[in-house]
């Protein structure tokens, strides 16, 4: 099973920014599309973004589009989620996982293969 470890969460004020990292352990991330999801207490998991293995295709949920940016550095075996203009409703545990792609190599953020990671807590509060 692919091992991915999330980091970078914390407490931030509304309007602030954070950058999350999803690091691969024991394997090379180059061949895998990666997705991010989040889960707030008492709510269902929400898939929010994904990036293809090459980085050439990205996708975002409407709730984060224009505020979050996903990227990857295959040399560092890491995928990033840059979050800006954060809102209290962004408070959640953020997790990453490898995701399926379609025939056009477009990642499918709602289709993880394997479990979502344990995640990193992001709290947006004044």
> How many DSSP-defined strands?
11
Order of helices and strands: EEEEEEEEEEE
Q: What low-confidence regions span 5 or more consecutive residues with pLDDT below 50?
A: none
| Total of helices | 0
Please compute the radius of gyration using only Cα atoms. 13 Å
Query: In percent, how much strand structure appears in the residues?
Result: over 45%
Largest sheet: 7 strands, mixed
Structural class, by secondary structure, is mainly beta
Mean pLDDT, all residues: 94
Shape: globular
The residue fraction in helices comes out at under 10%
Distance between the termini: 39 Å
**Multimeric organization:** single chain
Architecture overview:
By secondary structure, this protein is an all-beta fold. It has strands spanning about 5, 10, 20-25, 35-40, 45-50, 60, 70-75, 80-85, 90-100, 105-110, 120-125. The strands form two sheets. Strands 2, 4, 5, 6, 9, 10 and 11 form a seven-stranded mixed beta sheet that branches. Strand 9 (about 90-100) and strand 10 (about 105-110) form a beta hairpin. It is globular, with a radius of gyration of 13 Å. The termini are far apart.
